[in-house]
Amino acid sequence: MIKAFFKDSLLYTLANLFTRGIGFVLLPIYTRVISKQEYGLFDYLTTIGFLLGVVVTLEVTQAIYRFIPEYKETPLKQIKLASTGFWFSLFMYSWLCLVCFTFSSELAHLLLDDALYSDVIKVTSILFLSNAILYNFTTLMRANLLSKQVVIVSTLNAVFVAGFSLLLVVYFNLGILGLITGQLFGVTLSIIVSFTLVKAWVRFVFCIESLKEMLTFSAPLIFSSIGVVLSMFVDRVMLKEFLGAEQLASYAVAIKIASIVTLLMVGFQSALTPLIYSNYEKAETPRKIAQLFHFYLLAALFSLLVLGFSAQWLVVIVAGAQYTDAVSYVAPLVCSALVSSMYLFFPGLSLAKKTYIIAAVNIFVGMLNVVLNYVFIPKFGALGAAFSTLFSVFFALILNAVYSQRFYKVPVNKALAFFVSCGFGTIIYLTI
Hints:
This protein is mostly helical. Helices cover 83% and strands 0% of the residues.
């Protein structure tokens, strides 16, 4: 398992370094060509996309992760699950597009404070649909441990999206509309490529029994995912409402810099879940998960140290002097990104199918984050949002770990975890 993990992890990490790295390299161009107002609105729409993503399809892709490996000896069952999940997702997002097209002006006024952005709402809804299809296909690849295929699709998607977005934003000067339309063109091409890799599983098949099986598992996770999204993304929504799109733009730049750490850590995340589901019954698996977690902790501490103390330089280089207020947000946001992924090393609740506990924990923490942001953003601005999110994701990790250990014990070195936690706190204190 360890050997397979590091092999897949390396592939996912290299692919992510390239795919997200392209977006990071293009950020200095976007922040200088697009106004802070429009860049803030773009980040706001991206956040709404995450919120909708966990609700619209009832988290059916989580069931694909869970059940596809379980039926690897029954190809017909895999086809029923994969096809049913795909057509269900397509149907649900098509309804979302219909609503967005029908009420585009009203939604533009409500969300973006200007009805003139109605075309942006329409194109964004189609982009959400396209992203959902692409995510569905890559989920199938990961569930079947097709790491190389995922790397190919991710790389091509990054190239397509970057190329079209750069063309429409810089050459045609279309602003936020060009940025979103460019992403839509790129994702559409990626869907065509990815379909050729998953067409063996995606057929004109829709099985009600398979849908019931998947939704029985995934439906409770909707509330859990809403809680997770509230923990991770509500800060941006509330920042926009309290302080405006320009302040959100600075916060979004800090998040973009903090996301550098996910470029390095995504290999863990992408490779770990399918391997756990495929090997959890083996006696040595808990010990191996613990070893991977300890390695992750040390890598996380090093990443925070590097990014925290280079934040000033990174912000100026990446976004320009007009975004220097983002510097103090970087360290707590890096820490939030690192901590939010640690729950993957505690799979007990998911393996035991105790999704209602996952939902309860994450909803509670999500609501806590809403309250904290509501209280601290007016008092401390974006820094209050950053620390509210950090506290929420840390609390979520503790609760998930405590409950998960009751069902699937992972032998964690508590002394090492305490040492890393103290290191996190010290670095944040010295860099804000």
